[in-house]
Amino acid sequence: MIRLLSTPRLRTYSNACNSSIPDGLELYRWNLDVSMAFFESIHYFEVGFRNTVDTAMTKWFDATHPTPNGALQPHWFDPDTVHVAGRTPGQLSGLNNNSLQKVRDATRNAGRRHSSVKPGHVVAELSLGFWHYLLKPSGTNAMWTDALRHAFVRTARQQRLEASVGQIVELRNRIAHHEPIFAIDLHREYENLIRSAEIIEPGLGWWIDSTSRVDSVLRRRPAD
Questions:
Q1: CA 48 to CA 50: how far, in whole Å?
Q2: What was the pLDDT predicted at 139?
Q3: What pTM was computed for the model?
Q4: Which residue has the higher pLDDT, 73 or 32?
Q5: pLDDT for 47-65, tens place per residue?
Q6: Strand partners, 87
Q7: CB atoms closer than 10 angstroms to residue 175
Q8: 146-162 in b/e burial notation, b at 16+ Cβ within 10 A?
Q9: Is 24:222 a contact under the CB 8 Å cutoff?
């Protein structure tokens, strides 16, 4: 296992355990366990967050960009359906070219699994980073002012929520790339996850906290 996991990878863990390889392997296994526990909880947050944002943006877009009678209403992030004056709905919603390309990529990926691609399929393909971008103050103020500040059950300041979700994105990405998280303040990470979920919907925060394994795994951390 030392050969397969690689000495440089294990050194990060053994160095945290007084250069002990066996203790480093135990810490490695615990790091994997706590990573998976967080990933389960982040799953609920990610799905709830993206669906809440999509619902709010759809409601705003449909109300402010009506189509002619009988015309099919495009989805707010659709980058390829011309709507008015040569501009696409995605552009009308404030998405930049990079985000529009992510929507195109997500649509292609959804098309590999579904014969008829629906907006919900594309929503599921878009990364948490895509939805986090919509909260950024620069370039998306119209989205926040007109749609997203009304999306959440609890009032949230844009910069604070953007930073909190950004913290979750960073943790999620570290876990997804199999990076060590044992040196991070994981209690603080969990508190941020619950607080952010409660802004979306208090019930979401309750659900995550009541189903999460994070607290029990944190109590089982091996001695460094």
A1: 6
A2: 56
A3: 0.90
A4: 32
A5: 999 999 999 999 998 888 7
A6: 84
A7: 19
A8: bbbeebbeeebebeebb
A9: no
Sign of CA dihedral 186, 192, 194, 197: negative
Residue-by-residue DSSP string for 192-210 = HHHHHHHHH-HHHHHHHHH
User: Which alpha helices (H) appear in the chain, and where do they start and end?
Assistant: 2-5, 7-15, 21-64, 89-92, 97-111, 119-125, 128-133, 141-146, 158-176, 186-200, 202-211, 214-219
Rounded distance, CA 212 to CA 206, Å? 10
133 in Cβ contact with 108 (< 8 Å) = no
Tell me how many degrees the CA angle 39-29-48 measures, rounded to the nearest 5. 5
Q: Is pLDDT of 116 > 60?
A: yes
Bridge partners for 84 per DSSP: 87
Separation CA 130–CA 45 (nearest Å): 14
Confidence of residue 141 (pLDDT cuts 50, 70, 90): low
What's the rounded Cα separation, in Å, for the pair 24 and 31? 10
Q: Percentage of the chain surpassing pLDDT 70?
A: 95
